[in-house]
Amino acid sequence: MKTSIKVATTVVAIALYSAALAAAFSYWGPEGHSPVTTFVVAAIVGSGAAVGFGIKRVRERRHGTGAQDGVERDDSLRAQAAAFIDVLVAAIALVAVLVIFPQWISGTTALVILVVFALADFWMRYAIRVKSAE
């Protein structure tokens, strides 16, 4: 499939998603809320993932790192697997903290801590694997 067709399809999908969300929110949302604001916010949020995915694909093609049997892909998968175990342990620890000390930390803060920990854990493991392979 040509890149221009993929881009057009993605733009149309984001516009439809944003319009559906704006219509639903204007129907079920609070009184006096503008559907245009909801449409703009949904378009920005929806396009962020699509743009990120597109940038990733362009970088993979340019640098040749997207191959199924590539070293970079293997390093990434190994780092993901190791980080997943760490995130499971950290999630269990955070749930225990939330149960034992419910006033000490909020659930939202615990979730943010877990996401930041997961991202940092993966990127540190990936950087270590790439440096050790050189």
TrEMBL record:
Q: Which domain of life is it from?
A: Bacteria
* Residues annotated as signal peptide: 1-22
Q: Which UniProt keywords apply?
A: Membrane, Signal, Transmembrane, Transmembrane helix
| Transmembrane residue ranges | 38-55, 83-104, 110-128
Report the protein name in the record. Answer: DUF2178 domain-containing protein
Q: What organism does this protein naturally occur in? A: Mycetocola tolaasinivorans
